[in-house]
C-alpha cells in the first residue's frame, strides 16, 4: 500500500470567541481550495478559527483589538504562561485590573498576553469587550472547570509565516492576488468589541474597499436587509447559510441567525 500523504496539523483556536467561525470552515474551504496558493488576508481575524482552519502557508491577519494582536504575536514567539491560572472570582478581578494597567500603557507585552489569555478563558461566555476608555470590562464567568493551557509552543511552526497587524482595514497593504476573507462585527447595535466601535458607515466603507480588490473576496455578516442590499448593489454574489446560534427577540422568543456570504472573483 502506498504511503498516505502527510496531513497538515490543524490547530484549535487558542481562545474562546463569541461569534467564532469554526462552523463556517467547510463552506469557506470550497472557495479557498481554488486559491490556496495565495496569501490569506483577514482584516478582522478575531478568534483565528478561519486562518487555523484553512491553514495557509502565508497570511496577513489584522484586527483593531491591540490586546488580541499582541497575544497572537506572543503566540508566534512560543508563548509560555507562568502566572497562576485560577478559576476564582477574586483572582479574576485582580488580574483584570492588572491587565487594564498594562494594556492602557502598552507595557510588558508578554505579561499582558498571559493575562489576556487568562481573562478570555475565565471571563463570561468567551466575550471580548472594552469600554469607551479602553478598559476590558467582561465580568467573571461561571465555569465549573476550565482546562487552561500553559505551553503554546506547538503554535509557533504554524504561525511562523503569518504576519499580524493592528490597524484599520484600509491601512492594510494588500496585493492584487490576495484572497481576502472579511468577517466584520455583525450589523447589530452591539458596539463594544473595540474601543473604536464599528458602525454602519464603517460597514459601507468596508464594502467599498472590498469591491475594489481585484482578487478573490469572501465576506460573512448577518443577513440584514441593508447588508444584503449593500453588497448586491456592489455586484457581489450572495449565498445564505443558517448560523449555528440563535438571537433573543423578546421574552422567550428566539430566532435563528441567517448568515450571508458575499462573493467576488468566483
Question: How would you sum up this structure in a few lines?
Answer:
The chain has eight helices and seven strands, in the order H-E-H-E-H-H-H-H-E-E-H-E-H-E-E. The protein is an alpha/beta fold and about 270 residues long. The chain is globular, with a radius of gyration of 19 Å.
- Tell me about the largest β-sheet: 7 strands, mixed
- Rg, rounded, reads 19 Å
Give me the number of helical elements. Answer: 8
The succession of helices and strands, N to C, reads: HEHEHHHHEEHEHEE
Largest sheet, order of strands side by side?
3-2-1-4-5-7-6
| Shape designation | globular
Amino- and carboxy-terminal Cα gap:
38 Å
Commentary on this structure:
The relative contact order is 0.15. The chain has helices at residues 25-32, 49-54, 66-76, 89-105, 109-122, 156-159, 200-211, 225-233, and strands at 40-42, 59-62, 162-165, 179-182, 217-222, 237-250, 253-264. It has a seven-stranded mixed beta sheet, with helices on both faces. It is globular. The chain is an alpha/beta fold. A hairpin with a 2-residue loop joins strand 6 (237-250) and strand 7. Helices cover 30% and strands 18% of the residues.
Keywords:
266 residues, disordered N terminus, 8 helices, single chain, alpha/beta
Question: What's the arrangement of secondary structure elements?
Answer:
Layout: H1 25-32, E1 40-42, H2 49-54, E2 59-62, H3 66-76, H4 89-105, H5 109-122, H6 156-159, E3 162-165, E4 179-182, H7 200-211, E5 217-222, H8 225-233, E6 237-250, E7 253-264
Parallel strand pairs: 1-2, 1-4, 2-3, 4-5
Antiparallel strand pairs: 5-7, 6-7
Amino acid at each position: 500500500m502506498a504511503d498516505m500523504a502527510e496531513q497538515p496539523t490543524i490547530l484549535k483556536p487558542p481562545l474562546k470567541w463569541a461569534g467564532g467561525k469554526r462552523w463556517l470552515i467547510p463552506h469557506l474551504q470550497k472557495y479557498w481550495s481554488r486559491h490556496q496558493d495565495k496569501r490569506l488576508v483577514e482584516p478582522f481575524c478575531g478568534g483565528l478559527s478561519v486562518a487555523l482552519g484553512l491553514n495557509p502557508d502565508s497570511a496577513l491577519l489584522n484586527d483593531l483589538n491591540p490586546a488580541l494582536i499582541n497575544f497572537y504575536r506572543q503566540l508566534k514567539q512560543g508563548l509560555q504562561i507562568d502566572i497562576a491560572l485560577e478559576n476564582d472570582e477574586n483572582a479574576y478581578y485582580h488580574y483584570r485590573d492588572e491587565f487594564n494597567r498594562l494594556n492602557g500603557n502598552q507595557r510588558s507585552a508578554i505579561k499582558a498576553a498571559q493575562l489576556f489569555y487568562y481573562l478570555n478563558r475565565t471571563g463570561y461566555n468567551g466575550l471580548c469587550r472594552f469600554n469607551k476608555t479602553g478598559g476590558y470590562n467582561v465580568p467573571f464567568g461561571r465555569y465549573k472547570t476550565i482546562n487552561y493551557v500553559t505551553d503554546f509552543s506547538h503554535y509557533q511552526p504554524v504561525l511562523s509565516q503569518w504576519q499580524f497587524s493592528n490597524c484599520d482595514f484600509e491601512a492594510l497593504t494588500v496585493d492584487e492576488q490576495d484572497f481576502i476573507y472579511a468577517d466584520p462585527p455583525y450589523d447589530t447595535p452591539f458596539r463594544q468589541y473595540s474601543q473604536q466601535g464599528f458602525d454602519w458607515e464603517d460597514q459601507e466603507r468596508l464594502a467599498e474597499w472590498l469591491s475594489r480588490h481585484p482578487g478573490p473576496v469572501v465576506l460573512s455578516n448577518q443577513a440584514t436587509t441593508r447588508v444584503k442590499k449593500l453588497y448586491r448593489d456592489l455586484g457581489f454574489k450572495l449565498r445564505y447559510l443558517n448560523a449555528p446560534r440563535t438571537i433573543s427577540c423578546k421574552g422567550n422568543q428566539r430566532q435563528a441567525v441567517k448568515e450571508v456570504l458575499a462573493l467576488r472573483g468566483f
